[in-house]
């Protein structure tokens, strides 16, 4: 089964490069894995760093070719002072 690598990028932080990878049967499985990882990253990082954040995952194949990307954006606004 092919192995794919899921690199994470967030504004203000260095890229987190995946050197281990995950086996996925096809590109549909890569898409689902990317969709699962973004909320997990955001859940941990949003409380640490303010009300405007963007998280991006870039999936690479074994040759290093990007095959899928997804971005999750968080925007919070305090309404009362």
Automatic annotation (TrEMBL):
Domain DUF6894: start-end pairs: 3-73
Highest taxon, organism lineage: Bacteria
InterPro entries membership: DUF6894 (IPR054189)
Region annotation Disordered: where it falls in the sequence: 1-22
Name of the molecule in the record: DUF6894 domain-containing protein
Organism encoding this protein: Methylobacterium planeticum
Taxonomic lineage: Bacteria, Pseudomonadati, Pseudomonadota, Alphaproteobacteria, Hyphomicrobiales
